[in-house]
Amino acid sequence: MELFKIKEKHIQPRTVEIYVKGSAVIEMSYIMPVFLLLFVTVIHTVFYYHDKAVINGAAAETAVLGAQLERKRGTEEYDLNGIFQERIKGKLIYMTNVDVEITNKEDEITVSAKAWKSGMELSISQKASIVKPEEKIRWMN
Fold it and tell me: The pTM is what?
């Protein structure tokens, strides 16, 4: 004896059709290039500031290392340009053309770097003082 009789139905899946107005398609054709241009601009800006940070750090490290090596003058020859190039090798994303100029005055080392690519340019200058504390200590005694 069955209390409940379940009738089985074969259910057809429903298809939902979505209609888009023609004006929405036209509006998107104007808006999408603006979003893409904004995205590309943000990416280029991020690459610019990344390369600026890498070059700035390499110039500062090279200037400090040059000041330390100048203090120990007479121990060995050194190539600050090569040291700078080693610091930036393989780290730059966008601005791969870099010129570096290193000047050695009697009391400071200056490392100036200039990078450029397709209209974007950046210039960085870092200085480090050449200190000689042993001369000061001898003078004080």
Answer: 0.74
* Burial environment of residue 52 by CB neighbours within 10 A (0 to 12, 13 to 18, 19 or more): middle
Q: How confident is the model at residue 70 (pLDDT cuts 50, 70, 90)?
A: confident
Range of the domain at 96: 22-140
77 within domain boundaries: yes
The burial class, CB within 10 Å (0-12 / 13-18 / 19+), for 50 is middle
Identify whether 36 is part of a domain. yes
Total domain count, the chain: 1
With a CB cutoff of 8 Å and minimum separation 6, the contacts of 13 are: none
Q: Judging by DSSP bridges, how do beta strands 108-117 and 97-104 pair with one another? A: antiparallel
Q: Which residues pair with 7 in a beta bridge?
A: none
